[in-house]
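Allow me, if you will, to draw on your knowledge of protein folds for a short while. The matter concerns a single protein, recorded as an amino acid sequence and a row of backbone structure tokens. Kindly check, if you would, that the fold set down in the tokens agrees with what the sequence suggests. You will find the record immediately after this paragraph.
***
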Amino acid sequence: MLKKCTFGIGLMLTLSLGLLSCSSDDDGDAKDCDSCSAQGQTIELCDNGDGTYTLSGGGESETFPAGDLEGLDPGEFVDLICELANVGV
């Protein structure tokens, strides 16, 4: 359990730091999304409606299965990413 949790937090931190390197673009799609702000950038997590989520920020995006949320709801997941990114400043 600890190994899985550590992997999940490491994955989130890696994704959040990698996504904060460029400016953000809005795609204008009407999706079920949660967002937060980290280091002046908007981080957005959208439910694709097919069992996957897309994490976007800094002009980059990553799609992953819902299981990678590690038991968190989407709002908690994106808030955790922003917390970790802001702590790393």
About this structure: The chain has one domain: 2-87. The longest strand covers residues 32-38.
